[in-house]
From TrEMBL:
Database matches in InterPro entries: TOPRIM_DnaG/twinkle, TOPRIM_dom, Twinkle-like
Top-level division of the source organism's lineage: Eukaryota
Transmembrane segments: none
Protein name: Toprim domain-containing protein
Family matches, as SUPFAM superfamilies: DNA primase core
Record organism: Kalanchoe fedtschenkoi (Lavender scallops)
Signal peptide extent: none
All copies of domain Toprim, residue ranges: 277-386
Entry coiled-coil feature ranges: none
CDD domains: TOPRIM_primases
An example molecular function term from Gene Ontology annotations: 5'-3' DNA helicase activity
Length: 386
């Protein structure tokens, strides 16, 4: 069999007839091959000077009708290997070395990443909380495309387990226990001197007198003042625990509030409920002072105001309940109370606050205050207004 030499690859036409013979047409030459594989290999593939590179990746099978396949003909001394069927190289069937190590390490945490496709997030059952009562797939898991690292986070509020893992132990990985939160910043130690607090001036004493709050009540609650920005004087509500200053909240003439940073979150007036069986909780420092003027010292105020609405989520664990951390900081005081009176504001946020407090303190010992009417249509908003 002679084939004219070609300086460059040339398109040829292969026709498979129903008789089982291969016909190869190239330029003016017409070559015939038997269908038997051994004959094909002996006459063409095993030629030391020719190679046929089929553009199709599939075997050519006989068919009753003629089949046309285009190919490229070039010179080479190499033999043509038989076609090899290669499966898709994903991590389910062909794990990389890194992926295998990562899978072993993740199995130790109870996470099977064999169900994952690298590069695509997946939801699985959290090995820590088991998805709660509903057994929901709450753990979001992501494996990097190269199979070298894993990242996960449980979105159940009562769990919140999260972390990351690298395949190689010498690379940094981190993960915590369920319900574990970041360490709280170091609590500052405060003093009246360090905050530059001063006794109330006559102007601020008059401000409180207009609201029926006496100087005696102000002194007993250690209400002070501070100069800010030149001539501006602001009210300083000092937060104390066992007599020691632990935080301070400020209010200016425009009713703008702010607090000292990195301080312990507690109730305002905490020492007044140390041995109280009945505890009154109000929404602001001014309300606490007004309640005391009415003859009730067993009253405290929340430090951060009210939420816009009641949360639809499950209650978080104590160490993740950041918004209401003051409740858990003062738990030993509240545990002694047999009755808790929620005297929050009458507006929507105030009612939402009362509901959130009752959820955490136990509805069975919580009572609600309804403020009296100030006219035919409206009620008083809070204790200070009454």
């Amino acid at each position: 069999m002679l084939i004219p030499p070609q300086s460059s690859p040339t398109c040829v036409r292969i026709v498979l007839s129903s008789s089982g013979n291969y016909w190869v047409r190239m330029a003016s030459h017409l070559l015939k091959f038997n269908f038997a594989p051994s004959s094909w290999q002996q006459q063409f593939f095993q030629s030391p000077r020719r190679r046929l590179n089929l553009l199709s990746t599939h075997h050519i099978r006989p068919h009753p009708s003629s089949l046309t396949v285009y190919a490229s003909l070039s010179t080479s001394n190499a033999r043509i290997p038989r076609p090899v069927s290669v499966e898709r190289s994903d991590y389910r069937t062909l794990e990389s070395h890194c992926f295998g190590i990562l899978r072993t390490r993740m199995n130790e945490l109870g996470i099977d990443i064999g169900v994952c496709t690298p590069g695509q997030p997946i939801r699985i059952l959290c090995p820590m909380c088991k998805g709660g009562e509903s057994s929901e797939k709450s753990l979001s898991l992501f494996i990097s495309q190269d199979g070298d690292s894993a990242l996960w986070n449980c979105f159940r509020a009562k769990c919140g387990w999260k972390g990351n893992m690298r395949a190689h132990p010498d690379r940094k990985s981190s993960y915590g226990k369920p319900n574990q939160v970041e360490k709280v910043k170091k609590i500052r130690e405060l003093s009246e001197e360090s905050l530059e607090l001063e006794p109330l001036c006559s102007e601020l004493l008059g401000f409180f007198a207009e609201r029926m709050i006496s100087g005696e009540t102000l002194r007993r609650n250690a209400v002070m003042q501070k100069q800010c920005g030149g001539d501006q004087i602001v009210i300083a509500f000092t937060y104390r625990k066992n007599g020691a200053l632990v935080s301070c909240k400020y209010r200016d003439v425009n009713k703008k509030f702010w607090q000292e940073k990195d301080t312990e979150k507690i109730f305002y007036g905490l020492d007044d409920i140390k041995e109280a069986s009945d505890v009154i909780i109000v929404e602001g420092e001014m309300d606490k002072l007004a309640i005391e003027e009415a003859g009730f010292r067993n009253c405290v105020s929340v430090p951060d105001g009210a939420p816009p609405s009641v949360s639809a989520k499950d209650l978080p664990p104590e160490d993740r309940d950041i918004k209401y951390q003051y409740l858990w900081s003062c738990k030993e005081y509240l545990d002694k109370a047999s009755r808790i009176i929620l005297a929050t504001d009458s507006d929507s946020p105030g009612q939402a606050l009362a509901e959130e407090l009752a959820r955490r303190l136990g509805r069975e010992r919580c009572w609600r205050v309804r403020w009296p009417k100030k006219n035919e249509m409206d009620h008083f908003k809070d204790a200070n207004e009454v």
